[in-house]
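Here we describe the complex-level prediction in full. Unlike the single-chain runs in Section 2.1, the two entities below were treated as one system.
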Amino acid sequence: MPYDMEEQEDYLKQHSPYDLDKGQWEAMQQRLKAKVLADRAQHAPPRRRKRLWRPAASLAAGIALILSLYVVQRENGPAGKVATAPSLTAEQRLDKAISGLSDADLSWVHQLNEEELPEAGEPDENE
Amino acid sequence: MAVTDIDEQIIQLCSREVDVDKGFDLLMKTYGQRLYQSIRRMVVGAQDAEDVLQETLINAFRAIGDFRRESRLYTWLYAIATRECLRFYRQKKLVLKGFDDEGQWLARTLYAENDLKAETILLKFHEAILLLPEKQRLVFNMRYFDELSYEEISGITGSSVSSLKTNYHYAFERIKKQLRHAV
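The structure predicted for the assembly as a whole is:
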């Protein structure tokens, strides 16, 4: 009896001589996944790399600038040092200013401090 | 036909670098077997099919960010796979003596890889497909097994719908005739 392709359509469509068993299919998928992901990592858009490069380059340039200023300062001293008198620290300037005050001025500064500090530190209980 | 929800999910996962492995798993779960069978019907050999599927997936994963959602995802994957199958034929023709008659070469591979595992009628049916001219073989596989519309096949192959219908008709009649005599 001749084979009727139209009558056997379901069988012909649902069976294949090319089927792999589950183990073969899983193993092939793993091989493919490894290769596809490796290729994808190689060909990933370079956006992320660019983003990392910019701050890294800025940081490197900043460090180079600071180092070059440090080297120049060590070799030549700070700019304008030779022409001017040695500069005073803030503490030394404060001492100098206080020592120049009269007794009346000093008393007024103490009085001012005592009135101002409680207000700044904690609320007035009498309010 | 527009992309489905599952297509959209695959595209989103595959477009994000952190989720690309999940995207791969979902794509393979949804379309892997179907894609593999389609390629295998075209190139026959198990190792050749794996190589072609690998190239198909590599190309798809490189380009998925540019997928324009004008077709179903499977049709887009099928188009890439078809291009890779045709590339495979061209390469074989360059390096293999005897591949000029590609249908005979493919049919020999079919029997070499199957021994007596598959039923005779199934092997005869697939042999008849492989002996079709290349264009008829392509159209027959896409229409008969993958049930793509003529419009979708036209989008993949670039042939007109009327030419595809004619080719499918000739292919079907030819296979039917071969099977009638085979049993």
